[in-house]
Amino acid sequence: MLIRKLNIDERPPMGLLLLADPSRKIVEEYLQRGQCFVAESNDQVIGCYVLLETRPETVELVNIAVEEIFQGKGIGKKLVMNAIEVAKSKGYKTIELGTGNSSISQLALYQKCGFRITGVDIDFFTKHYTQDIFENGIQCRDMIRLSRYL
Ligand code: COA
Description:
By secondary structure, the chain is of the alpha+beta class. The protein contains 5 helices and 9 strands.
C-alpha cells in the first residue's frame, strides 16, 4: 500500500470522503483549504485523509476514511501515522482533530496514535448538521477535540 498526495488534476475520492463526514458542503470546503492524501493498493484508492492548516504551526487532520471492506486491517492507523509524519516534515508543531462523542472506535484509534483529549465542542453536531447522527446506539451531539505534539 502506498500513501501519496492527490495530484491537482485528479478527482478527490468523494465517496470515501463522505464516509468520514456526511456534509458534502463541509467536505468541499476542506478540499479547497487543505491537501488531500490517498492510500492506494493495486491502483485502487482505498483510504484518504485531508490535512488543513488552521493556525500558525498547527494542522488539523480531517476526513480520514478507509473503504468499508478494507476497514479493521490497520490501514486507518497507517493513515493517521502518515499524517503525523507529513505534518512533522512540514514543520508543524501540533496536529489536531475532532470526532463525535459516539465515535468509539475512532476515539480508540486516535488515542493509540498518541492523541490526547483536549476539549469538547458541546453541541457541534446538533448545531451544524441538519440530520441526526447515531453511532453505537449513541446520538452524536458533541465534538471531542484531540491533539498531539509533533
Ligand atoms: N477498543 C479498542 N481499540 C479499538 C476499538 C475499540 N472499541 N475499535 C477500534 N480499535 C482500534 C483497533 O484495535 C486498532 O488498533 P490496533 O492496531 O492497536 O489494534 C485501531 O483502533 C484502528 O484500526 P484500523 O484497522 O487501523 O482502522 P481502520 O482501517 O478501520 O480505519 C477509520 C479507521 C475510522 C478510518 C475507518 O473505520 C473508517 O473509515 N470509518 C468511517 C469514516 C470515519 O468514521 N472517519 C473518521 C471520522 S472522525
